[in-house]
């Protein structure tokens, strides 16, 4: 069975690894730039299942995905020698005013009622967990099982794992269009005037997914949502717990690096780090952990979350309305968290499908 994967972000690479692990042989991954060039290496790397979920179903799915990372990180280290920086660093979700305190307390109750660990802590309790926390914090929800990975390391490990498993990766290769015959997707056209046929095509082009010609109109549009990030460095390392404050966050890597984010901007694919973006990120980070004021400013970057334009905004995963075309895209803020779970679902769908060439 010949499988073509369009896009070498975390979705494309994890799906390739999963397909190869299940015995698929001819897997070709086509990447416009180099694998991991875009959102997947740019992410903050939080596995923040309890913080990020919006409803009960998502909570269960996100928690499963988060908890599966412990074993996945070990498997990737054993097979590639690369440490993906998995750390169960916990999250403190900060509350300042009375209303926010009350909401935080009831969030903790709701999580505990579902058998998850969550603790409401007052200011002293919060500072006992993270001594770098600001004095103006009234209390916090502490989620000790929330975790993080180092996304560039994750992508390196996936590329090595895929290559060792026999996946062929072509960098610098842009897919221009899907080729459809008699109502089935049977291949792709490359921008460089070359066509490739395949039994299954997996669209994993992140926030560029809707720009590939031939994607059926019935599939919701994936649009870019820009996020900017700032890397600081503390010497010696001080902060250790992820701090979450509405949409601002501080993610200490544990080795002195601290990733601070982020913005949420609908500006198309404009690849710009802005003065206002950096200002707002640093103001929120320093407000949460004042000693970050003295940390070294290392660098800034931005990238594009793939957001799905639909009522639910749910990611697009598995079989599509076009036979032969499979989707692994639209994961918005949680693509790192959901990578392995998505790869498993997509691999099941692809390997359960009999392609047009009678595979
Ligand atoms: C600032 C920021 C912070 C984030 N923080 C977190 C976080 O803490 N936790 C979390 O879980 N998620 C986070 N995310 C979200 C996460 O990064 C994304 O959901 C995830 O990386 C999407 O992966 P992907 O493989 O779909 O897309 P991408 O990583 O963007 O990969 C798509 C790939 O497809 C390639 N491509 C595009 N078009 C074509 C084409 N026509 N032909 C060939 N190749 C093509 C691109 O070059 C790219 O390499 C964050 C995102 C951002 C931007």
Question: What can you see in these coordinates?
Answer:
The chain is of the alpha/beta class and 359 residues long. The protein has two domains: 2-80 and 151-221 and 310-351, FAD/NAD(P)-binding domain, CATH 3.50.50; 91-145 and 223-306, D-Amino Acid Oxidase, Chain A, domain 2, CATH 3.30.9.10. Helix content is 30%, strand content 28%. It contains nine helices and 19 strands. The chain has helices spanning 10-21, 39-42, 49-52, 56-80, 98-113, 123-129, 151-164, 275-288, 339-351; strands at 2-6, 26-30, 46-47, 91-95, 119-122, 139-143, 147-148, 168-170, 175-181, 184-190, 195-197, 200-203, 222-233, 242-245, 248-252, 257-261, 296-308, 316-319, 325-329. Strands 5-6-4-14-15-16-13-17 form an eight-stranded mixed β-sheet, with helices on both faces. A hairpin with a 5-residue loop joins strand 18 and strand 19. The chain starts with a strand and ends in an 8-residue tail after the last helix. The mean pLDDT is 96. It binds flavin-adenine dinucleotide. Flavin-adenine dinucleotide is lined by residues 6-12, 30-33, 37-40, 42-46, 174-175, 204-208, 212, 227, 229, 261-262, 303-306, 329, 331-337.
Topology:
Blueprint lengths: L1 E5 L3 H12 L4 E5 L8 H4 L3 E2 L1 H4 L3 H25 L10 E5 L2 H16 L5 E4 H7 L9 E5 L3 E2 L2 H14 L3 E3 L4 E7 L2 E7 L4 E3 L2 E4 L18 E12 L8 E4 L2 E5 L4 E5 L13 H14 L7 E13 L7 E4 L5 E5 L9 H13 L8
Parallel strand pairs: 1-2, 1-12, 2-8, 4-14, 12-19
Antiparallel strand pairs: 3-7, 4-6, 5-6, 9-10, 10-11, 13-16, 13-17, 14-15, 15-16, 18-19
Helix pairs in contact: 1-7, 1-9, 4-7
The chain binds flavin-adenine dinucleotide.
């Amino acid at each position: 069975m010949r499988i073509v994967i369009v896009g070498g972000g975390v979705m494309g690479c994890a799906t390739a690894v999963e397909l190869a692990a299940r015995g698929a042989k001819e897997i070709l991954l086509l990447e416009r730039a180099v694998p991991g060039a875009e959102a997947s290496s740019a992410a903050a790397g939080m596995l923040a299942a309890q913080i990020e979920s919006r409803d009960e179903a998502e909570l269960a799915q996100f928690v499963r995905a988060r908890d599966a990372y412990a074993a996945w990180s070990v498997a990737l280290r054993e097979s590639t020698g690369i440490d993906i920086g998995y750390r169960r660093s916990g999250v403190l979700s900060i509350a300042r005013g009375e209303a926010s305190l009350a909401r935080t307390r009831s969030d903790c109750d709701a999580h505990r009622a579902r058998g998850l660990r969550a603790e409401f802590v007052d200011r002293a309790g919060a500072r006992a967990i993270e001594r770098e926390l600001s004095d103006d914090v009234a209390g916090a929800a502490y989620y000790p099982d929330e975790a993080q990975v180092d996304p560039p390391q994750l992508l390196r490990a996936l590329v090595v794992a895929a290559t060792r498993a026999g996946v062929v990766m072509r960098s610098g290769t842009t897919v221009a269009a899907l080729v459809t015959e008699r109502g089935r997707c049977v291949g792709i056209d490359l921008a460089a005037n070359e066509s490739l046929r395949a039994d299954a095509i997996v669209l994993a082009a992140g926030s560029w997914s809707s720009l590939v010609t031939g994607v059926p109109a019935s599939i919701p549009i994936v649009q870019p949502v820009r996020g900017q990030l700032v890397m600081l460095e503390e010497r010696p390392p001080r902060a250790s717990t992820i701090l979450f404050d509405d949409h601002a966050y501080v993610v200490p890597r544990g080795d002195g690096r601290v990733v601070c984010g982020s913005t949420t901007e609908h500006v198309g694919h404009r690849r710009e780090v802005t003065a206002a973006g950096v200002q707002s990120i640093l103001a929120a980070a320093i407000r949460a952990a004042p000693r970050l004021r003295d940390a070294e400013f290392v660098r800034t970057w931005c990238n594009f979350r793939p957001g799905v334009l639909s009522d639910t905004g749910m990611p697009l995963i598995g079989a599509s309305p076009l036979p032969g075309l499979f989707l692994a895209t639209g994961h918005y803020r949680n693509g790192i968290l959901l990578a392995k779970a998505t790869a498993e679902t997509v691999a099941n769908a692809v390997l359960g499908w009999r392609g047009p060439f009678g595979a």
